[in-house]
Design brief:
alpha/beta, 20 helices, 3 domains, 476 residues
């Protein structure tokens, strides 16, 4: 298993703890949560059940829960399905007591958020099962899992009821880094040059489920065609299915996502209200929080970190790719991606998608700059006064009184600093200095694919990071 060694070790530590543990494994859909758990424990579950959006009623889930108990030999001889979740957990409790012994009992409930339907009584029953029974024992490892990260956070981590502070372990499964993607594809025999791996990341992010469709006998471009644009492509409807599987009334969420996709650098809350049908109230707050918790959106404060100036930015790679090439009109050619290798539309998307790749690899950029041992604060900056406007993609404010003003540039060769671009960099630095009144030393910094080409204008760059640094493993 590639890239999940730390998370797997933590699961095994919970297994060996000698006390009952309630562990939540959560993260974006398709990121490999279920795979991690099943690879770690194999067939060693005492009981396992998976919630589903396709089961339309609580009664339907209770029936399937009963079937699952029978599959594990825990149904006590073929009982009728339980009528309530309280009864269902009573049956699980009886099965545990009947099993006896001190051996570890691993219980895994996958996609738990789908069991907590309105009026189902699920959460109260689970609360009672854990607090009145399971937590007092020493032999239970209860693993809950869900792609609806906002549900996990609100209903378990931030619970104000009986589950308050009851979760003993949290494992947030992040998308693969570039280094992990490289290792994953190499293990499949699908090795690509790092330039191509970055483009692969721009399309699919670090999502193992997507990467697993890549076939080693094809180029990256042909693989993208097969996965997205060809007739019957496995990811042809992924965008719609992704949001529908995570959020009730998912259209409200995709409306916000569409607005964010229209402004690559992000929108303020007021700008979101202006571009959508949402009012500036609690519903929008909940939607933005859910999108942020689920890893689709990041919220950041523009330098110098005024809390009332938060900007929301879409950072999910597949969503960005979908809006760039599939939202307005789905291409009909099954070889669409292979045919548009150097179009202005593609190059504009590459430039922005590379910025998001960099924002997901701040740790590696700091390693490349040699400042991984320095305390840093990361943000971005927009000028409120400069004409023409000025903005800086990435500001790294350092504990050693330096600010790296980072330009993030995707190029097919060494990036050439022209006279005009050098003047633009000087103008940005001057505007940043004048508006922020910072007393820190400013380092104009380039993060590029192949580095900066040396010429008469490149001296303005005081630090640089090339793409190989983005493939460094994160510091543990």
């Amino acid at each position: 298993m590639v890239g999940r060694r730390i998370e797997q070790e933590r699961l095994l530590d919970y297994y060996a703890s000698g006390k009952s543990e309630l562990v939540a494994v959560y993260g974006r859909r398709r990121v490999g949560k279920t795979y991690l758990i099943r690879e770690t424990f194999g067939d060693g579950f005492f009981f396992s059940y998976t919630g589903s959006a396709q089961i339309a009623s609580t009664a339907g889930h209770l029936e399937r829960f009963s079937v699952a108990l029978g599959a594990y030999g825990l149904d006590g001889g073929g009982e009728a399905p339980p009528k309530t979740w309280m009864e269902a957990f009573d049956r699980l409790r009886n099965a545990i007591e009947t099993a006896g012994g001190n051996h570890r009992k691993v219980i895994f409930v996958d996609e738990m958020p789908w069991l907590d339907r309105r009026g189902s009584g699920f959460l109260a029953a689970f609360d009672y099962f854990w607090n009145a029974f399971a937590s007092a024992r020493r032999d239970i490892l209860f693993i809950v899992c869900g792609s609806a990260t906002s549900w996990i956070t609100k209903k378990l981590f931030q619970s104000r009821g009986g589950l308050h502070n009851r979760v003993t372990g949290r494992i947030y499964l992040r998308p693969f880094t570039l280094q992990e993607c490289e290792a994953f594809l190499a293990a499949k025999g699908s090795g690509y040059a790092r330039y191509d791996l970055i483009e692969c990341y721009m399309v699919f992010g670090g999502i193992p489920y997507y990467l697993d469709f890549i076939e080693k006998k094809y180029s990256l471009a042909v693989n993208i065609d097969h996965m997205v644009f060809a007739e019957g492509a496995p990811l042809a409807n992924e965008f719609e299915e992704l949001y529908a599987s995570l959020f009730e009334h998912h259209e409200r969420y995709t409306e916000v996502v569409a607005a964010l996709a229209s402004k690559m650098k992000g929108l303020t809350r007021e700008e979101i209200v202006a571009q959508t049908s949402h009012e500036n109230g609690g519903n929008l707050t909940s939607i933005l929080a859910d999108l942020e918790l689920s890893g689709f959106v990041r919220r950041y404060d523009a330098y110098p970190h005024k809390k009332n100036g938060s900007i929301y930015q879409l950072i999910d790679h597949f969503s960005l790719f979908w809006f760039a090439f599939l939202h307005d009109r789905r291409p009909t050619s099954p070889r669409y991606w292979s045919m548009m290798r150097s179009t202005p539309r593609l190059n504009a998307w590459r430039g922005y998608a590379f910025e998001i790749v960099c924002l997901r690899h701040i740790d590696q950029i700091e390693q490349g700059l040699g400042i991984s041992g320095v305390i840093t604060y990361v943000s971005a900056w927009r000028s409120r006064k400069s004409d023409p406007g000025a903005q800086i993609d990435l500001v790294i404010e350092r504990g050693d009184r330096v600010c790296n003003l980072c330009e993030l540039k995707y190029a097919q060769a060494e990036y050439e600093i022209t006279k005009e671009y050098a003047e633009n960099l000087r103008r940005k630095e001057a505007a940043f200095l004048a508006e922020t009144k910072t007393r820190r030393t400013l380092f104009t910094t380039m993060v590029t694919t192949y580095g900066v080409k040396r010429n008469m204008h490149s001296g303005i760059v005081r630090a640089e990071v090339a793409m190989d640094a983005l493939f460094l493993p994160p510091i543990a």
